Amino acid sequence: MKKKRLIPILLLRNGSLVQSIDFSEYLILGNPVEAVKRLSEWAADEIIYLDISGGEKFDAGRSDLGNAFKRTFREVIVDVADATFMPMTVGGKIRNRTDIAERLSQGADKVSLNTIAFDNFRMVEEAVLEFGSQCIVASIDYKEIDGKLRAMVDGGTRDTGLSPQSWSKRLEEIGVGEILLNCIDRDGKKNGYDIETISEISADLKIPVIALGGVGNWEHFREALEKTDVDAVAAANIFQHTDQSVYHAKKYLFDSGLSVREPMLLSI
Description:
The chain has helices spanning about 30-40, 75-85, 95-105, 115-120, 120-130, 165-175, 195-205, 220-225, 245-255; strands at about 5-15, 15-20, 25-30, 45-50, 90, 110-115, 135-145, 150-155, 160, 180-185, 210, 230-235. By secondary structure, the protein is an alpha/beta fold.
């Protein structure tokens, strides 16, 4: 049986690792490279790194702690790639195929596309042909507006007018390799995944779906794996506040009889 994946999401905003709440509030957590080292040692299956910064320049940490100043997200990603043993997906501010090629050359295994997929649909089709479906992850942020679910872009501020269900089908049809499905309304709320929507979309697609948004405890991972057809469960905030969090989450799922890789620590 195919193993389900457990994927930490790391959010980088202006050079610092942050916790996000409702796509509008951000709590600074620390240095992005050190966080990746921990998650790698705890044997996460993969990692997704998303740049949600408002500008182009970043400071990776305090100089008195020996953290070098980083001028761009690209430089941060090079250091992150050097520090991890996991497959890494990188997203944020990707505008063209050159940006995709750069991310891949800097150590990313896949790229996550969100706004550009809506604004330049043809570019995504071309990227699939050039780099392969396995390299292209389509990220769908969605929220409820006037009683209807809408796929959003530009950091959740612009309504595409499309439902996440219809948008995910269109993206599958042009050959993207995976869908990262994120419920904005549950971002940072710790009240669990949007099981109903995740179940509907994952059952309708032939490509892997990664669930994101709302995890507050290990049981929320279990619920998604038991009640939907997702290939992976992901979270951001919960992995930043518990020592050896990925290991403990995976052990909970493994001991519950779910099809995940056996938990292990690469370093103790």
